[in-house]
Amino acid sequence: MKLEAQRYDAVAARAQQLVTPAEVDTALDRMAQEITHRLAGTDPLVLCVMTGAVCVAGLLLPRLHFQLRVDYIHVTRYQGQTRGGELEWRYRPSERIRDQHVLILDDVLDEGLTLKHIVEACHADGARVVQSAVLVAKTRPHACEADVVGLEVEDRYIYGYGLDYKGYFRNADGIYAVADDDV
Ligand SMILES: O=P(O)(O)OC[C@H]1O[C@H](OP(=O)(O)OP(=O)(O)O)[C@H](O)[C@@H]1O
Ligand SMILES: Nc1nc2[nH]cnc2c(=O)[nH]1
């Protein structure tokens, strides 16, 4: 659904920046080092979890200087809302996963249910090894942990660097917490 321009501006004005672009860059450099340490030499299949991981993938992949391939998984649980619901699979590249070292790349680890389902699906599809990396993890319990985490933020609804608010703000150059009244 579309957001009126006035409402869009008001949400942005009330939001609080939690992470600056410079801090994201530093986190991505560190993530790239950790991922290289874990996966260089395994010819991994990197799976970008659409749509939110599009920025992480775009910024992280050029920092990985080893042999790898890229595909995507499309799964959604929030569907433009600020609370998660049923997980809906839109694209699952099952036939490409068998016997592969898989790296799942996502933007945020919140409840961890999305990552848990993806990891289970990759194992069910015959992956040899499944590892995961997220740009941001919220400081709260998760159903599943990521192997590599870029940044930790408080448990508030956030947008920017691929993360949306009602389908918008994925292009925000910082990570912002939405004001309580807007959640
Ligand atoms: O840890 P969880 O509570 O399961 O939430 C994390 C998931 O939520 C977001 O996806 P969303 O369903 O919003 O789809 P999107 O990627 O299209 O934004 C995000 O990209 C993660 O995949
Ligand atoms: N955009 C966005 N998506 C999420 N999915 C789970 N938590 C969040 C969040 O805080 N922001």
Could you describe the 3D structure shown?
The structure is a single chain. This protein is α/β, with parallel strands linked by helices. Helix 3 links the parallel strand 2 and strand 3 (69-76). A six-stranded mixed beta sheet has the order 4-3-2-5-6-7, with helices on both faces. A three-stranded antiparallel beta sheet has the order 1-9-8. It has helices spanning 5-14, 21-39, 54-60, 94-97, 113-124, and strands at residues 16-19, 45-50, 69-76, 88-91, 101-109, 129-138, 148-153, 158-159, 175-177. The protein has one domain (19-178): 3-Layer(aba) Sandwich (Rossmann fold). Helices cover 28% and strands 28% of the residues. Bound molecules: 1-O-pyrophosphono-5-O-phosphono-alpha-D-ribofuranose and guanine. Residues 78, 108, 110, 157-159, 163-164 line the site of guanine (GUN).
Q: Under CATH, the topology is which? A: Rossmann fold
Helix amount, in percent? Answer: 25-40%
Q: Give start-end ranges of low-pLDDT stretches.
A: none
Average pLDDT, rounded to a whole number, is: 96
Architecture per CATH nomenclature, i.e. the level-2 architecture: 3-Layer(aba) Sandwich
Helix-strand layout with pairing:
Elements: H1 5-14, E1 16-19, H2 21-39, E2 45-50, H3 54-60, E3 69-76, E4 88-91, H4 94-97, E5 101-109, H5 113-124, E6 129-138, E7 148-153, E8 158-159, E9 175-177
Parallel strand pairs: 2-3, 2-5, 5-6, 6-7
Antiparallel strand pairs: 1-9, 3-4, 8-9
Bound molecules: 1-O-pyrophosphono-5-O-phosphono-alpha-D-ribofuranose and guanine.
